[in-house]
Request: fold
Amino acid sequence: MSRYKELQDQIAALQKQAEEARKQEIAAVVAEIKAKMAEYGISLEDLGSVARGKGRKKAGSGVAKYRNPVTGEHWTGKGRKPGWLVQALEQGRSLDDFKI
Reply:
């Protein structure tokens, strides 16, 4: 096997390890945030996530089916995929990872 191929295989293995470590760290951080929110009685509205955007909902925009666990952004599954979802899918994540 060529040296180049070996290095590419190592890169792929390390990227997979990095993604798994990221998932574990995110899960721990999300759990910590949820615990703090429960402890202090903080809601998503308190964080201002509902007030995002232009302040009004588009008619017929539908119910959100997918959520970004980091930012709380939502997507209904209709229309173009949002940038955060496209990036996650390119990194090997599954659409099911973001289902609400």
Notes: The two ends are 44 Å apart (CA to CA). The chain has two domains: 1-49, 58-100.
